[in-house]
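User: Hey, my collaborator sent me this sequence without any context and asked if I could get a structure. I don't really work with proteins. Can you help?
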Amino acid sequence: MNALVQLAAEEPQNPLIPPIPELVIGLIAFAIVFGFLAKKLLPAINKVLEERREAIEGGIEKAEAAQLEAQQTLEQYKAQLAEARHEAARLREEAREQGAALIAEMRAEGQRQREEIIAAGHAQIEADRRQAAQALRQDVGKLATDLAGRLVGESLEDVARQSRTIDRFLDELESKAAASEATGAAR
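Assistant: No problem. I've predicted the 3D structure and written it out in structure-token form, which is a compact way to encode the shape of the chain:
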């Protein structure tokens, strides 16, 4: 114990500074561990970090490519949508024009049919008027010849004479009727 006391008395020892042999042994052990880590572990760490960096960069490039593709697809969809809207507007305009043309065509056809019906009605009325006038002429002629025969006291059965007499009588009546219409219209 003496020796320990003597040693303790010789040098005052600082607790923060280790003894030189321990320091040298610690530095050698640190260099061995650092060398081992630098040779074996550091390349693996660098490899993992490089792979991670490449994965991140690849992910960014893929994301940029996907974003670019999405932008192009969006532009294509917008162009297709604009084209579809333009086509729809063109079809609406074409349908409107066809509808207007169809309406005009139907109106023209209706007008034509109306005019045909009116013309056919006028022709029928004129034919009916002529037929009625002819029937009336025959009836009036027959009555006039019967009456004239009774007045004269002889039969006027001669057809040619009867026809001339009837025609002359009816022409006189028509001219008197036309003259009275003309004077009535002049007033």
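In plain terms: The chain has a mean pLDDT of 83. You can pass these tokens on to your collaborator as they are.
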